[in-house]
Amino acid sequence: MTKLSVNINKVATLRNARGGNNPDVVQVALDCEKFGAQGITVHPRPDERHIRYQDVYDLKAVLRTEFNIEGNPVDKFNDLVLKVRPTQVTLVPDAPDQITSNAGWDTKKNLSFLTEIIGDFKEKGIRTSVFVNAEAEMVEYAAKAGADRVELYTEPYASAYAGSPEAAVRPFVEAARTARSLGLGLNAGHDLSLENLKYMHEQIGWIDEVSIGHALICDALYLGLEETIKRYLECLK
């Protein structure tokens, strides 16, 4: 079964735009769980422009489903993850000033660095996933670094989907097959939506988890959060 992990960064962005605690990030996360989501994802950045570090501690205290913390493994981030001990940490190579993640790791070039970081997290029992482009070599070196899973960066799929779904998904199927052959778990995320999620899941039925935030929260503005989560879950059946 492919799990849906809801990324709530955009909820925090809305809260921070006005100050105060409306919307309540923790309550939204609990509602996502109540409506059927099997996980919650956050991506705290150094400037705390959306998810704050305190949010991570507050969420850890109350969440009942899987908790996934993603981000660039700088010292501050690593300390947070090691203290909170979420179900999963997803390592993402984004610069502090990036609006959003836009590429996976060069796992070959960064093999030594990733091996060390992954070892630290695994010592604490934290499942570790590495954000990669849909390239067999990048998947292979993530396995060499000791990762438990890879998360395929799916923006190229989403961008090409309207032109040719078959061509758009092809490299992702190949990368997913490589991951499976190496015994790696498989996650996917970035720009997945109600338009393109079902097709990807049909082609790669062994995805363990999809992490979806921006599109899901946008859909919720029109459909409501409960109905939106229901529709995303339908795509994963």
Structure in words:
The chain has 237 residues and is of the alpha/beta class. It is 47% helix and 16% strand. The chain has helices spanning 9-18, 25-34, 53-60, 75-84, 111-123, 136-144, 155-160, 165-181, 197-203, 214-223, 225-235, and strands spanning 3-7, 39-42, 66-71, 88-91, 127-132, 149-153, 185-189, 209-212. The model has no long low-confidence stretch (mean pLDDT 96).
Helix share bin:
40-55%
**Main sheet, how many strands, which sense, barrel?**
8 strands, parallel, barrel
| Chain-averaged pLDDT | 96
Strand content: 15-25%
Number of helices: 11
Number of strands: 8
Output the strand order for the largest sheet. 1-2-3-4-5-6-7-8
What form results from the Cα inertia axes? globular
Rg result: 17 Å
**Can you tell me the residue ranges where pLDDT is under 50 for at least 5 consecutive residues?**
none
First-to-last CA distance: 8 Å
Order of helices and strands: EHHEHEHEHEHEHHEHEHH
Helix vs. strand class: alpha/beta
How would you briefly describe this protein structure?
This protein has 237 residues and is α/β, with parallel strands linked by helices.
What keywords describe this structure?
237 residues; globular; 11 helices
